[in-house]
């Protein structure tokens, strides 16, 4: 296990260096004026250009620029918004809300998605199975911002069950959380169904049944645990889509989180704020993936002995 | 096996969603063919299966209508999408305008019909871009192996580390379009942003199939006969390794359509002179309580489009997956 963890950590280093370098080049070093789009609708004031040139060391050669930028990132300095607020401070004050939202969304995915997948797999070809297949197909094809707006009109405005916009309290985060969770709910349900159907046909399940174990134990312990492994990997790999979805959902429901900050940044054409905040999200995504990989090795011993 | 797969590939319009390999109805494909059967190519088998699949036929009809709508929108509506009357602003559906009018008093039906073009263009060109870029990287990595493989695979890992929507936001926030940008440039930027970041899965798929194919006898034979690398790659390996990429491409086309709408909704994808469902939905958002028709019709078209491509992707995957036979 220790060796596996070290190997994964080492593999992570070039990926993090590569992605941050890629983003840095995309934002600051492609041909053209890097300040064309960073100050809202007006051209950038010279003072701002001077400040950013200093901050991002734009007069240095590319690799030195990037090196200094990374040194800043590592020490927690993510740059400043157009109005001069530290992005790190903004992020720190906003991230608990977004984390809560993401947790609700993942909770919804796991609870509803896995239940639906298991029910469908156990009654394969039956009514529930077809219902799950058709409803997941429909949920998948409606983009998350449409689901969000529809939920807002129906449950917020017409039925009045949930607040229309969120103030960051748990109750007001429920509806946005559900909307965000619906993004991957369908994939989780389908993946769970497929895996369970496959595992129910596996030899070890037949052995367990032949030993005389009750069906509940065969399904609940033997088949289910093995079918969960790919689902967990998927939820980890899908975390990036979840973060993207959070930008949309937080924008629609006005949730005071990180996504909303990016949403407003886009609307006000503050390129520097948007790119800095999104870079942080990409780093979070990479770290979450690393954690999921490690968790994967805990769940499935075959992985660490490769 | 050497017969080219392109006939089946080109007859099936693309579509779908990145469903993690789930199976649909295994039963439908019945038993494996007996030993006495005449050998058929994967492509002709897949095409035979597809023609019988109701899901394929339904989605193909919807997509055909959408493509026609994108190509010749005036067939579907007499109204001009950019001739608007402010007096009609936000009027609901009526006999003269089935879908009602939007904020500027433009006919929502006309704008929805004309909006198909941008979505289809972005979807198709991004899919082509992703398939070509990914195939090239994957083929080179898989065929040459060694340091080329190491280098290209690490490069793929790096691009894979940036989630598509987040990456597209970074690129498009850096190179925004405005009202003055010509339409083709606005659309081109979205296509480029999505292609540059979205090719990694194709590359991984292509690499693994090329590694399987390159040790085949006919490739060895072609080498022994003195075939050059380019010839071997293009006329021996590519035709036999392209099927999984075709399947994946049909599956992601719908995703790109949805992503374009999401980016346009955020205000960072397509911009004003281009007519797009995402922009229409963004505008409708503010008036959702008073005039829900502005939201519902573009949303319905967008969802049906994505749904059609997903169903097509499902059908194509089922037809091409030899495991299900």
UniProtKB/TrEMBL annotation, chain A:
Keyword set includes Amino-acid biosynthesis: no
Q: Where in the cell is it found?
A: Cell membrane
Its BP terms in the Gene Ontology are: transmembrane transport
Chain segments annotated as transmembrane: 12-30, 101-122, 131-153, 173-192, 227-253, 273-299
Q: Which domain of life is it from?
A: Bacteria
User: What PROSITE patterns does the annotation carry?
Assistant: ABC_TM1
Q: Describe its membrane topology.
A: Multi-pass membrane protein
So what family is this one in? Belongs to the binding-protein-dependent transport system permease family.
The entry's protein name is ABC transporter permease
From TrEMBL, chain B:
Main location, first listed in the record: membrane
Q: What name does this protein carry?
A: ABC transporter permease
GO terms classed as biological process: transmembrane transport
Where is each ABC transmembrane type-1 domain found?
Answer: 116-313
Q: Which InterPro entries match?
A: BP-dependent_transpt_permease, MetI-like, MetI-like_sf, OppC_N
Which Pfam families does the entry link to?
BPD_transp_1, OppC_N
Q: Which family does it belong to?
A: Belongs to the binding-protein-dependent transport system permease family.
**Domain of life, per lineage:** Bacteria
The record lists the lineage as: Bacteria, Bacillati, Actinomycetota, Actinomycetes, Jiangellales
Keywords tagged on the record: Cell membrane, Membrane, Transmembrane, Transmembrane helix, Transport
Q: Name one GO cellular component term.
A: plasma membrane
């Amino acid at each position: 296990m220790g060796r596996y963890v070290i190997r994964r950590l080492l593999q992570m280093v070039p990926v993090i260096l590569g992605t941050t370098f890629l983003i840095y080049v995309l934002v600051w070093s492609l041909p053209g004026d890097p300040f064309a789009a960073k100050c809202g609708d007006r051209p950038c004031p010279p003072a701002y250009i001077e400040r950013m040139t200093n901050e991002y060391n734009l007069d240095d050669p590319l690799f030195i620029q990037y090196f200094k930028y990374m040194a800043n990132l590592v020490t927690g300095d993510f740059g400043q918004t157009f109005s001069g607020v530290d992005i790190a401070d903004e992020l720190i004050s906003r991230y608990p809300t977004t984390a809560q939202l993401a947790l609700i969304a993942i909770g919804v995915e796991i609870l509803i998605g896995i239940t639906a997948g298991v029910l469908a797999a156990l009654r394969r070809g039956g009514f529930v199975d077809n219902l799950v297949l058709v409803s997941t197909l429909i949920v998948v094809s409606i983009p998350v911002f449409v689901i969000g707006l529809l939920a807002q009109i129906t449950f917020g405005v017409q039925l009045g069950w949930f607040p229309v916009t969120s103030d960051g309290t748990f109750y007001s985060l429920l509806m946005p959380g559900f909307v965000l969770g619906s993004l991957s709910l369908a994939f989780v349900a389908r993946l769970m169904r497929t895996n369970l159907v496959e595992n129910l046909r596996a030899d070890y399940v037949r052995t367990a049944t032949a030993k005389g174990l009750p069906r509940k134990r065969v399904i609940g312990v033997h088949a289910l645990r093995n079918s969960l492994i790919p689902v967990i990997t998927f939820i980890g790999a899908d975390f990036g889509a979840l973060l993207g979805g959070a930008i949309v959902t937080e924008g629609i429901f006005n949730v005071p989180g990180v996504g909303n900050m990016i949403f407003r940044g886009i609307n006000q054409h503050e390129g520097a704020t948007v790119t800095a905040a999104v870079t942080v999200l990409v780093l979070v995504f990479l770290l979450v993936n690393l954690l999921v990989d490690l968790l994967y090795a805990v769940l499935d011993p075959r992985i660490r002995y490769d | 096996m050497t017969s080219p797969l392109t006939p089946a590939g080109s007859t099936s319009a693309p579509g779908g969603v990145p469903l993690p390999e789930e199976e649909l109805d295994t039963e439908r494909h019945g038993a494996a063919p007996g030993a006495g059967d005449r050998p058929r190519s994967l492509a002709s088998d897949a095409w035979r299966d597809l023609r019988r699949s109701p899901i394929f036929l339904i989605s193909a009809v919807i997509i055909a209508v959408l493509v026609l709508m994108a190509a010749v929108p005036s067939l579907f509506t007499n109204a001009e999408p950019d001739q608007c009357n402010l007096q009609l602003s936000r009027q609901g559906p009526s006999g003269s305008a089935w879908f009602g009018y939007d904020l500027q008093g433009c006919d929502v039906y006309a704008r929805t019909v004309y909006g198909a073009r941008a979505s289809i263009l972005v979807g198709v060109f991004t899919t082509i871009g992703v398939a070509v870029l990914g195939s090239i990287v994957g083929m080179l990595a898989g065929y040459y192996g060694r340091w080329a493989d190491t280098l290209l695979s690490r490069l793929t890992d790096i691009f894979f580390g940036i989630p598509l929507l987040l990456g597209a936001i970074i690129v498009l926030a850096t190179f925004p379009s405005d009202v003055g940008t010509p339409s083709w440039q606005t659309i081109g930027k979205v296509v480029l942003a999505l292609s540059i970041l979205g090719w990694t899965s194709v590359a991984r798929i292509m690499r693994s199939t090329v590694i399987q194919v390159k040790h085949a006898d006919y490739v060895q034979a072609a080498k022994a006969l003195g075939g050059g690398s380019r010839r071997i790659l293009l006329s021996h390996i590519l035709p036999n390794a392209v099927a999984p990429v075709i399947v994946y491409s049909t599956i992601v086309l719908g995703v790109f359509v949805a992503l374009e709408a999401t980016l346009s909704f955020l205000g960072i994808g397509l911009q004003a002179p281009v007519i797009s469902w995402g922009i229409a939905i963004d505008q409708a958002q503010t008036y959702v309580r008073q005039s829900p028709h502005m939201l519902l019709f573009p949303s319905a078209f967008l969802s049906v489009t994505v749904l059609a491509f997903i169903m097509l992707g499902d059908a194509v995957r089922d037809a091409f997956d030899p495991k299900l036979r």
